[in-house]
Amino acid sequence: DHVYELLNTIDASQCFFNISINFDFTKSYLDLIVTYTSVIIMLSRLDDKKVLVSMYNCAYEMTKATCESSYPRLSQMFIEYEQPWKKLSEDFWPSTCG
Asked: How far is 66 from 18, CA to CA, in rounded Å?
């Protein structure tokens, strides 16, 4: 969620990306996009996503005696990214339209 919000903020700021003028900013932005995309594609390759998230929540609950506060959002995110290419195109559509 934080990466997606950051990408939207950068897009809304209408930042100028030119590797010859602002190399570090452009490189960091491209690194962020590549890392975000890589994580989403990697997560889509896991067969037992629901089991993994459920086990994480159980382990958290056993150690902390309370449910993980972001568990509902994490579960929803795994459902949203069942089809990673569709979701990634939706996520990046605002950035590619202008």
From this structure: 47
Can you give 6-65 as a three-state secondary structure string?
A: HHHHHHHCCCCCCCCCCHHHHHHHHHHHHHHHHHHHHHHCCCCHHHHHHHHHHHHHHHHC
The residues near 67 (Cβ < 8 Å, ≥ 6 apart) are 57, 60, 61
DSSP letter for each residue of 61-89: HHHHSS--TTHHHHHHHHHHTTSHHHHHH
pLDDT tops 60 at residue 42 = yes
Is this structure's pTM higher than 0.70?
A: no
Sequence-distant (6+) residues with CB within 8 A of 94 are 8, 11
SS3 of residue 68 by DSSP: coil
